[in-house]
Prior knowledge:
This protein has one helix and 29 strands. The chain is mainly beta. Strand 19 and strand 20 form a beta hairpin. It has two domains: 1-32; 45-329, Fucose-specific lectin (Neuraminidase), CATH 2.120.10. Strands 2, 3, 4, 5 and 6 form a five-stranded antiparallel β-sheet that branches. Strands 7, 8, 9, 10 and 11 form a five-stranded antiparallel β-sheet that branches. Helices cover 9% and strands 46% of the residues.
Amino acid sequence: xxxxxxxxxxxxxxxxxxxxxxxxxxxxxxxxxxxxxxxxxxxxxxxxxxxxxxxxxxxxxxxxxxxxxxxxxxxxxxxxxxxxxxxxxxxxxxxxxxxxxxxxxxxxxxxxxxxxxxxxxxxxxxxxxxxxxxxxxxxxxxxxxxxxxxxxxxxxxxxxxxxxxxxxxxxxxxxxxxxxxxxxxxxxxxxxxxxxxxxxxxxxxxxxxxxxxxxxxxxxxxxxxxxxxxxxxxxxxxxxxxxxxxxxxxxxxxxxxxxxxxxxxxxxxxxxxxxxxxxxxxxxxxxxxxxxxxxxxxxxxxxxxxxxxxxxxxxxxxxxxxxxxxxxxx
Length: 330
């Protein structure tokens, strides 16, 4: 037989349960109504340099599908790697050696759709060398890809959605391309034409939809662009403007693609070190140039950009002392 006390206890429990439900419902409303944090540019951070030498060239960057970011630079003829992992943060600098001849100039790097990492470097006689890594076999040795001409500077590389690998290099004012495919292996070197009498290290990126973009900068500082489509082939060279007409006459260019297929382009001046960015999307076209600031008080020597699978955009820059800096958007 129920007592008055037990009845009051049951009603009290019911009231408390109702109040708890209202509190949970209100809290859920607050959470759902809180907007997602907008992506922003984070401050420059110092990544150091692999050796105490001023003859450091780079940087190059590549992003793996698991969120790992790799940074590459060449110092005193040797290739170095530093990587960031979501679980362990930044590693130290790791030496990957050099081919028979010491390396000269800016390196290149790419990640293929199968997960392989490719690094490229040129020697002082314009020969281009290649080394790759896979999760099953580790690092290969260095192989020579020959040279397209003499007087070549800088190397850039990018993977296509098809698994192909593109490599570009500038010799005097002409940009040359060589590519590898899973079915045909390496092509020969082919000319992409003359941009100016002199061109600094070019850049290349592959879009997720299959197109390939190539970039080059003459001493005037104007950034030039040419692209390839599986359906229409190569376009001609076109200008996307000069980010800083009042700056120095020596500039570099880097390019990367986001998961959304947007293209990011960065360029920096050699005297001031200021890094500029411009981006393109299929819905809005080209943005204007924006300044990402100068990471170092010592002036800059190069910059590049890469998009990670998690949506972030990473920009790497190097100052004239060979120190590497990093800034990201996300």
